[in-house]
Amino acid sequence: MNNQATSATSLTQPFKPYTQAGHAAPPLQSNDLKAAINREVHESLPFFLSALGGLFLIYSLTEWQQVGSFVGPVVLTAFVSSIGLFALLLLRQQMRLQVSQANGVALLVGILMGVNVLLRLFVYENIADTAYVVLYLMAVGALILSTRWIVWLLGLTAAVWITAVISSSPELMSSSYYGVLLALTYIAAIMIHAIRRRSFTYAESVRLENERLVTKMRQFNKRLEAEVQERTAELKRTNAELERLDKTRSDFITIASHELRTPLTIINMHNQMLSDTNEVK
Fold first, then answer.
1. How many alpha carbons fall within 13 Å on the CB side of residue 266?
2. Is the dihedral of CA 268, 273, 279, 281 positive or negative?
3. For a tag site, which of 57, 64, 67, 193 has the least CB within 10 Å?
4. CA 228, CA 226: separation in Å to the nearest integer?
5. Using one digit for the tens of pLDDT, what is the confidence trace for 243-273?
6. 145 HSE (CA, 13 A, CB side)
7. How far apart are alpha carbons 98 and 39 in whole angstroms?
8. pLDDT tens digits for 25-68?
9. Cα distances (angstroms) measured from residue 76 to each of 64, 83, 120, 157
């Protein structure tokens, strides 16, 4: 009886989603987070692959016009990168890239971007090309959700940039402005990554918790529906039994009245005959 009252009370209360203010996100398991990141990256791959492939193609054509030759390392690397990105896009559109491979594809895209940006710095030996590195770091911080891979890319980029500065002309080595700018960019990229990852983790936790609550509500509704059907069947059985008893009572009354009618008629006739005789009078 108490369970039925609790169930009825639960049904009368409005369903509150997990996103209500004041609730903290539940802890998200590492496997769930990894799968969610793969799914998120897999869904966003078509946009990023097509956009970056187009940008690298335009970049290679622009460099070709400026250099006047297509065999330069910067032009060839940018053109090959654009072809590789469009090939990955084709594989993604044909559903040949699995969701579990999405993070690997994102890492490959990040490496291609870094190679093009740092190669330009090595070839042209122009410290102003650090601006491309700054843009690259900001893009990596915003696009890549895997902390391990973004740390790996940032560390590799810093090592290659320092190597390019040390191995280049004294002009590059004497300039500290771009070094400070790059350091500030690293801090900004890490903050962007941390904020985006935390927001994504919270959103994924909320989504999983809401799915759990919805599943629990559906299971409760199924149990309640089964209980209602069981009670309805029990009421039908009780009603059928009452109808059977009522029919039995009606049949008994009908039979009893029919069976008693004949002897009562005979008794009534004898009574009438006796009342008509003189002796009785």
1. 4
2. positive
3. 67
4. 5
5. 888 888 887 788 777 766 677 677 777 677 7
6. 21
7. 10
8. 556 566 777 778 778 888 888 888 898 899 889 988 888 888 77
9. 9, 11, 12, 21
Q: What tokens does 28 get? A: 């998200």
How far apart CA 164 and CA 175 sit, in angstroms, is 13
Distances (CA, A) of 266 to 180, 262, 270: 128, 6, 6
Q: Exposed (0-12), middle (13-18) or buried (19+): which is 170, by Cβ within 10 Å?
A: exposed
Q: Torsion-angle region of residue 22: left (phi > 0), alpha (psi -120 to 50) or beta? A: left
Token reading at 139: 């893009």
DSSP class of 26: P
- DSSP code for 100: G
Q: Locate 80 and state its tokens.
A: 């090959």
